[in-house]
Design brief:
The protein is built from 18 helices and 21 strands. By secondary structure, the protein is α/β, with parallel strands linked by helices. The strands form three sheets. It has an eight-stranded mixed beta sheet. The relative contact order is 0.12. The model is unreliable at 456-475 and 480-518 (pLDDT under 50).
């Protein structure tokens, strides 16, 4: 009599032995001469089990070490419509997929709802230690009777509910892979790197949820999320939720003219750079072109002069004295509202802090000092705060009404994260948030600003205004020295209504958490 096949977990892979009858499972298996058995990638667990079940193959599942947990929430709230829609869309997709919501739209509470709807051992993966502790505090408050642990920052727990950093989860992926039925990837755009992706690849978790405000990556690897987590199942933008879950907001772009001395020096430096680019036949219109420029700048004195000129021109545009005058006016205009100031570099942060006596936070700020500054900002003792990139992601920033971007990168992710810092409604009724972009006119900053807002930077602004082009990120007012304004209307997104149809449950002979997309089994 033939033995019943047994499925086991082995350091991020699955072994099925002896071979099962039928052929469906063989699509996922590879023969391993070292052990003389069939081996399957752990990420294929759900598909493998479903293939075996479809052929009514009896097997023993010794791979899974996950199990049901009791999650009784002590802090349930009435979800916003977009949270209920996102949860329904995720369930309809078989509890696998990515949800895209803007910063401050309640992704953490959505994850709590997903955990309650899928009460199994759960791993939550986050990019920073700050976020790890924020998640831990939220889950301890939400599920006081559950065992919640940490992996990272010196902690090495193995609890039914575990919050881990990407770094720690990747290091321990081989031992974590079969212990959790649900994996939640916070800021999931961090997952598709060569180091982090093993967290998903070595896991058998049949249920996966990715959360991000901006899953797109410049290297195109966000496409791998379809395999590592599942397809995008729901998306909302900040303007879709304005006045509902998020505050009403507008984006005001203020263009600053360089002084005559700054303009002459800027043009001279750009001419030096462009002469070299023309001679070397280099175009900076793409990442490849920039990489080629960096390579060529290291090969000749002319190349080094061109790169130095490029950097000095950028410093003039980023740090023109006109920006500090605008900043001073904005701080006075909006006092005593809480204001966040963002720059592209730490040097400008310290300059603003020193000249205007504004508390500053950079990556060099000690943890205790940063906590003290944020606490005083939250309590209203500090009315303004200046930072570079450190507050973009992974830090719980108190709600503010005004954000001022003095300089930044062309990253849409950075832009959305900075905008999200002022979109939390908190306890403020009819809150009106404003994001100011201060841009040096007729410099490379105009192109950088256009890229982060998703515009076509090679199209003249006046032509865009004549066409009434719709901007992707809210109502944008461009302010010049004359005080004249022009408007871009926000694009309207069609409402997507999801309905959940209950499917007839298929008997699960092998007691595996993978068959039904409506409700998980034990």
């Amino acid at each position: 009599m033939a033995r019943t096949p047994t499925l086991t977990f082995d350091r991020g892979t699955l072994i099925l032995h002896p071979p099962a009858r039928g052929k469906g499972w063989m699509d996922y298996a590879t023969w391993d001469d070292r052990v003389e058995k069939f081996r399957i990638p752990a990420i294929q667990y759900r598909l493998l089990v479903e293939a075996l079940q479809a052929e009514e193959t009896n097997f023993i599942d010794e791979a899974k070490a996950f199990h049901p947990v009791e999650l009784v929430a002590s802090m349930e709230m009435e979800p916003y419509p977009h949270q209920s829609e996102a949860l329904a869309a995720w369930k309809l997709a078989g509890r696998q997929g990515v949800v895209v919501l803007p910063t401050a739209a309640g992704k953490t509470y959505l994850a709590q709802m997903a955990m309650q709807a899928t009460p199994r051992t759960t791993l939550i993966v986050v990019p920073t230690l700050d976020l790890m502790h924020q998640w831990y505090a939220h889950l301890m408050a939400a599920f006081p009777d559950a065992e919640v642990g940490l992996l990272g920052g010196g902690s090495r727990d193995r609890t039914p509910i575990l919050v881990a950093t990407y770094d720690s989860a990747a290091i321990h992926a081989e031992s974590l892979g079969n212990k959790y039925a649900l994996v939640i990837f916070d800021e999931c755009h961090h997952l598709p790197t060569d180091f982090n992706r093993v967290i998903a690849e070595y896991a058998i978790a049949p249920y996966r949820l990715g959360l991000s405000a901006t899953p797109e990556r410049t290297d195109g690897k966000h496409a791998d999320l379809n395999i590592l987590i599942g397809k995008e199942v729901y998306r909302k933008r900040a303007e879709d939720l304005a006045g509902k879950a998020l505050a009403e907001h507008e984006v005001v772009q203020i263009k600053v003219k360089l002084s005559q001395v700054e303009r002459e020096r800027y043009n001279q430096l750009i001419q030096t750079r462009n002469d070299f680019l023309k001679q070397s036949k280099i175009s900076l219109g793409s990442l490849k072109g920039w990489q080629y420029f960096v390579q060529m700048s290291a090969r000749s004195p002319a190349g080094r002069r061109a790169m130095l000129a490029h950097r000095q021109a950028k410093e003039i545009a980023l740090g023109t004295d006109g920006k500090l005058r605008i900043l001073t006016n904005l701080l006075a205009e909006h006092y005593p509202e809480r204001i966040l100031i963002f720059t592209a570099d730490n040097a400008t942060v310290y300059r603003i802090s020193g000249e205007l006596l504004v508390p500053a936070i950079t990556h060099q700020t000690p943890v205790k000092e940063r906590h003290e500054i944020l606490t005083k900002f939250r309590e209203g003792e500090y009315k303004s705060l200046v930072a570079s990139h450190v507050l973009n992601e992974g830090v719980d920033v108190p709600a503010a009404s005004i954000a001022i971007i003095l300089s930044g990168t062309g990253s849409a992710r950075e832009y959305i994260q900075r905008l999200g810092r002022v979109l939390r409604k908190g306890n403020i009724e009819n809150k009106q948030a404003i994001l100011y972009e201060v841009v040096a006119e007729d410099t490379s900053e105009e192109g950088t600003s256009a890229r982060r807002r998703g515009e076509r930077s090679n199209e003249p602004q006046r032509r865009r205004e004549r066409r009434g082009e719709e901007d992707k990120r809210g109502k944008l007012h461009v302010v010049y020295g004359s005080g004249q304004q022009s408007n871009y209307k926000a694009a309207e997104q069609m409402e997507i209504k999801y309905s959940v149809e209950k499917k007839a449950k298929t008997p699960n002979k092998n007691n595996v958490d993978s068959k039904d997309s409506s409700e998980p089994t034990n």
